[in-house]
Amino acid sequence: MSPEAWTLPWEEAREGLLVHRDRRVVYLNPAAAELLAVDREKVRGLPLILALRDHRLEALALKGGEAVLEVRGRVLAARARPGLLYLLDVTEARRRGLEAEEAGALLAHEFRTPLAGMAVLLRALAPKDPREAQVLDLLKKEVARLTRLVESLAHLRPGRREAFALEDLWLRLSALMQDRLRGRRVEVALGHRVEADPEALLQILLNLLDNALKYGQDPIRLLSRVRGGRVYLEVRDRGAPLPDYEGLFQPGRRGGEGSGQGLGLYLVRRLAQGLGGGAYALREGEENVFGVWLPVD
């Protein structure tokens, strides 16, 4: 295929594309030139660092992977494959996400008191027959669910760190989601200890497992592993491959059809970053993998 044939679609693409070989720029589409604030004709053939002017981007382009970086006043989602660097401006999405975070914290503050009052009143009620007892039990569960949702909005900034076993989180998680887990095949292998905010990590697991239960297929696997000075915590399922994994972490994106605002994975990434780590999603073999990593130290 001639260079003109494969570059033509990229000339009008919103996503930036930089092609490099032997650490030198081969091709730069207009979107990438704008995002990097360079003249693409002048940087063609020059060393990669002269076009990127950012050592983090250069390292990503050479090693591969994905990252979200602030570069020259923009927030860029970058994906690197051998010889290719894709760039997408997510500045506006990040701004909307921060606004959603601020609004969520405000809502959490306003809703805590009335929800606590409702829980107290429900506990004080004495049902007269089994039918009323069943309805009361459902109301208590709904209030508990709303309380967890409110707390998830309030825990975007992790709190006190402590050392604990990840298995302890599973005991809490399985109790909170016992109705959702009934009839599902979930395999758990959480054999590590971490030092982190347990409430923030519990919320991460809640969101990841909820995502797998909604959109994935059994068996669902929760596992932890340590590699390269990091603890990885993953939820894996055998759902169909997804067209775009990185984009699911943006506000308003969901992994499948359904209701909701698509904030679950966005909150996962924000919480993981607050713990000094990060979040990722990928296809590995026959599994969709959604996970977070935390520094061992």
Automatic annotation (TrEMBL):
Keyword Protein transport listed? no
Q: List the SMART domains.
A: HATPase_c, HisKA
The cross-references to CDD domains, in alphabetical order and at most eight, read:
HisKA (cd00082)
Q: What class of enzyme is it?
A: transferase
User: Per its UniProt entry, which superkingdom is the organism in?
Assistant: Bacteria
Per UniProt, residues of the Histidine kinase domain are 106-297
> PANTHER family of this UniProt entry?
SENSOR HISTIDINE KINASE GLRK, TWO-COMPONENT HISTIDINE KINASE
Q: Know the name of this protein? A: histidine kinase
The gene for this chain is phoB
